[in-house]
Amino acid sequence: MNIRQLLDQRVSSAFISIGASKDVSAVIKQSSKAQFGQYQVNGVMGAAKKLKMNPRQFATQVVDVLDLSDIADKVEIAGPGFLNIHLKPEWLAWQLELALNSDTLNIDKIKTPQTVVIDYSGPNLAKEMHVGHLRSTIIGDAIVRVLRFIGYKVIPQNHVGDWGTQFGMLLAQMNDLQSSDNELSMQLSDLETFYRDAKKRFDAEPDFAETARAYVVKLQAGDPNCLLLWQQFIDISLQHCEDVYERLNVLLTRNDVMPESAYNDDLPQVVADLDSMGLLTEDQGAQCVFLEEFKAKNGKILPAIVQKSNGGYLYATTDLAALRYRHNKLHADRILYFVDARQSLHLNQVFTIAKKAHFVPAEMQLEHMAFGTMMGKNGKPFATRDGGTVKLIDLLKEAEQRAFDLVNEKNPDLDKEERKAVAKTVGIGAVKYADLSKNRSSDYIFNWDTMLSFEGNTAPYLQYAYARIQSIFRKAGEFEHNATLNLVEMPEKQLAIKLLQLSEAIEVVSKDGTPNILCNYLFELAGNFMTFYEACPILKADKEIKNSRLKLAKLTAKTLKTGLDLLGIKTLERM
Ligand code: ARG
Predict the structure, then answer these.
(1) What is the rounded distance in angstroms from the CA atom of residue 528 to the CA atom of residue 556?
(2) Contact call for residues 88 and 500 (beta carbons, < 8 A)
(3) Is 132 in the pocket of ligand 1 (CB under 6 A)?
(4) Domains and CATH numbers, the chain
(5) CA–CA separation, 462 vs 383, rounded Å?
(6) Is the dihedral of CA 561, 564, 570, 575 positive or negative?
(7) Whose Cα sits closest to atom 2 in ligand 1?
(8) What per-residue confidence (pLDDT) applies to 420?
(9) Ligand 1 contacts CB of residue 161 (under 6 A)
(10) What is the DSSP string of 113-144?
């Protein structure tokens, strides 16, 4: 239980004992100013209103029955009926000790862990991953790490697009080049160009287009040679994705890939089942689901098409099949989709249809964790100068190069290998953090200069804060681990309470899928540490004080490292 939860429990039962109903919330918030203590109870006014009591009077009664003597030394009534809770420094110190002596910072595991499927990354394999795949990949990955950390059973699902008509022209192109094996693997080393060349021929050469269309038919009919060629392409394309994942320090592996094609066999059944549930309507030869819930501005219902007039299936059909699989085979309680906000209609239709058709139980939590677009400086979606798509791998290489230039400038004495390693960690960390720290649902402007800055809410700032603490320990040498931790000065207390609030940040992130809350927490923690470090000398202090402060520093480093790790960002011992 974190402090907020502990206080919530205690204050809520005080509320109930003076007559409030069980569903009234105590509304415990972290205090914004140190003079108001560390926590604030904001629920008094609401509870008093329901009981038709004067809020100050209700507050007085709460203070009378509330016993926080083990953890707080003062509970004051403020304003119209707020309660300010001042926690005991000794109790805080004891909590810090528990965190120091635990591998997981004494953060509790969830009591009834659900099985959570996390759908993220999901690139289309016909082309190479581009910058549009960055957000889903890294936000989803951070949430995987956070939920696992607190004990959920997490099943990542990489819903890659590996099926559809584009593969016809790719196979036709492969077939032409296949005569010389060498050439083929060379060509496929740049999928982007390969795709473009195939597309050019498809548009310009009627014969080629004909062959391409024949390939689609053969592929769908399960022609073995065709499947072999297709599999070869998919393998290479997945290898490209894995290179990106590795560079990005993203956990996804081939085991997490559950491609669209895996659902092919179930698609006719999905349509048949929708039909038997009475959900299908034929419209211009296509099979559609019309639901009142989804209307355009003009009042017309927006149908979800599940089968085209030529018999082909669609994105929605595959997603419905995937939902069945996630329920029947993976036994998911909750599914989080980290998918571009522009797909919100699609996903909401799929969720609603799946429930109406009883493909998944009504209580299953289906959440579209939508995100906005990454923009260039010009305010348009991030692209090359001539408006082309930017390959994700190229963006990451550029990040490493820019970070390398920076390290060369700041720390030319480091040997070259180490400078390279630092640049990798800082460059990739910067790109990831710049994204993760933004409000997920809005668009944001990609800016190299701010993300690589050592000041402000950036990865380099946090990585540097961590490395700086490590350097204190290199100077301090060994210290007394059984020394007493004493919280005396205000900056010490401020740092202490912040250290104990990681769990509260994680609580929000796990509910809302918002890594920016964790980023903010870490940024504030680093700020609290800097204030403490300036105001409270560590190495020059007397032995007892020095040991106590070293403990605070140790736990700060541990918390920064854990927090960055949950974001998928690496730390450095020196930089
Ligand atoms: N392949 C899709 C795209 O690139 C993303 C897949 C998202 N996941 C899903 N279950 N639909 O837009």
Answers:
(1) 10
(2) no
(3) no
(4) 3-87 (3.30.1360.70), 115-161+260-368 (3.40.50.620), 165-252 (no CATH)
(5) 29
(6) negative
(7) 122
(8) 96
(9) yes
(10) PPEEEEE----BTTS--BGGGHHHHHHHHHHH
Residue percentage of the chain with pLDDT more than 70: 99
Q: Which of 117, 118, 119, 327 to mutate to test the pocket of ligand 1 (most atoms within 8 A of CB)?
A: 119
- Indicate whether this model's pTM tops 0.90: yes
> What is the whole-number distance in angstroms between the Cα of residue 127 and the centre of ligand 1?
14
Hey, what long-range contacts does 552-556 have (CB within 8 A, 24 or more apart)? 552/96, 552/485, 552/492, 552/495, 552/496, 552/499, 553/469, 553/472, 553/473, 553/529, 554/100, 554/469, 554/473, 555/96, 555/99, 555/100, 555/499, 556/469, 556/495, 556/499, 556/525, 556/529
The closest residue, in CA terms, to atom 7 on ligand 1 is 122
Edge to edge, what strands does the sheet with 304-307 contain?
280-283, 286-289, 304-307
- Residue closest via CA to ligand 1's atom 9 equals 159
Q: 509, 143 in Cβ contact below 8 A?
A: yes
Write out residues in the chain with pLDDT < 50, as ranges: none
Per the listing, tokens 């492969």 go with 174
* Closest ligand 1 atom to 340 CA: 12
